[in-house]
User: Fold Pyridoxal 5'-phosphate synthase subunit PdxT from Planifilum fulgidum.
Amino acid sequence: MKIGVLALQGAVREHLRMLERAGAEATAVKRPEQLAGLDGLVIPGGESTTIGKLMHQYGLSEPIREMAASGKPLFGTCAGLILLAKRIEGAESAHLALMDITVRRNAFGRQRESFETDLPVAGVADDFRAVFIRAPYITEVGPGVDVLARIDDKIVAARQGHLLASAFHPELTEDVRMHAFFVEMVREASAVRV
Ligand code: GLN
Assistant:
């Protein structure tokens, strides 16, 4: 099981470490040819506009979309969630436009710019320590999307088939369960492809 972490910006090393702890081989991805042979990909947090531009400049957008089209799982955290979304509030276009969700950027406002809270995440944990940093949330999901976690009415984690997204940063905790959940998705998907 070999999983890439898109390494254009953000908490790359932390994701690599968590994937390894969850039992996968993990590698940083900067160029399109490094996607070959991967079973899944993590898209970390950072600044979604910047990552989106770099992804485009480095010719990574299309190969990542193709990777998803071939059934390989993707996991976007925070800015990565924004990059996966089909719709971004107030923006004319989306980035990878893969997941049937609408997102609102920097959605918790100045009062709650960065905070941590324990959340139940369906199928993952009853008490996941969720770290939010200028986080987005999901305002709408399409019919094929399962909501995994909410804060009040705000959706902060979701799954659509082989696509997983969280508004929080599971790589910034010591809790490996969210990455283990993703590694299991990757294992299931690769079993189906064989
Ligand atoms: N606020 C960032 C954005 O909109 C996301 C923040 C993050 O990834 N921690 O792109």
Summary: The radius of gyration is 15 Å. Residues 2-192 form a domain with the Rossmann fold fold (CATH 3.40.50.880). The pocket of glutamine is lined by residues 45-48, 78-79, 82, 105-106, 133-134, 136 (CB under 6 Å).
